[in-house]
Amino acid sequence: MGRNRGFTLIELIITLGLIGIFLSMAFSPFIFSYKNFSNQNTNAADIAVARRAMDYLVREIRKSDSIEVGKGDAGGGFAKELIIDGCTYEIIDRSLCKDGEEFIKGIDELRVREIMDEDEGIGMEINIVIKNGKGEDYILSSTVYIRGGGEQFVEDD
User: Fold this and answer.
1) Spatial separation of the C-alpha atoms in residues 100 and 107, rounded to whole Å
2) Tell me: the pLDDT tens digits for 28-50?
3) Confidence tier at 157 by pLDDT (50, 70, 90)
4) Range of 118's domain?
5) pLDDT, tens digit, for every residue of 82-121?
6) Does pLDDT of 20 surpass 90?
7) Per residue in 116-128, pLDDT tens?
8) Count of domains forming the chain
9) pLDDT at residue 154 above 70?
10) d(CA 9, CA 77)
11) Coil/strand/helix, residue 64
12) Is residue 12 part of a domain?
């Protein structure tokens, strides 16, 4: 009988193992790039949501007749709600709500406090907090100073 030509089982297993190692090394940069791109897209979307909410609140404050820091303690002297011309802005179930009606989704916290600056006058500090997938906070902060010395503020009695 002649000698059989072909590969033994051990040769096939070693070859497949080497091909697997080579392919994993070749494709790992692509997988890493895809995951990184996906994370950056998610972060950009979160930041866009926070900016949209901040732009809306600042615009409403600037055109308002009355502003009041609402109730609820968010820590650090911040309240959890803002009242602009009688409309209450607060976070309910990760959404910014105006008088209980949701209009911007994806926001974890709203922090508001009245501030007084000797040069600028009375103002409002607003923080919008969004938590990323890792549980880290992204905080967008803005300070709005009120024209006319703060006649718009409603004082608590």
Assistant:
1) 15
2) 998 899 988 988 888 888 899 99
3) very low
4) 46-149
5) 999 999 999 999 999 999 999 899 899 999 998 887 777 7
6) yes
7) 877 777 888 999 9
8) 1
9) no
10) 72
11) coil
12) no
- DSSP 8-state assignment for residue 153: B
Burial tier of 91 (Cβ tally within 10 Å: 0-12, 13-18, 19+):
buried
Let me know if residue 85 belongs to a domain.
Answer: yes
Residue 19 inside a domain? The answer is no
Residue 49: name the closest of 102, 85, 115 by CA: 102
Amino acid at 147: R
Longest dimension (CA), the chain: 108
Q: Rounded CA gap, 13 and 116, in Å? A: 74
DSSP-derived 3-state class of residue 100: coil
Q: Which one-letter amino acid corresponds to residue 139?
A: I
Contacts of 51 (CB under 8 A, 6+ apart): 140
- Asked if residue 33 is part of any domain, the answer here is no
Query: CA distances (Å), 145 to each of 22, 50, 130, in order?
Result: 61, 20, 24
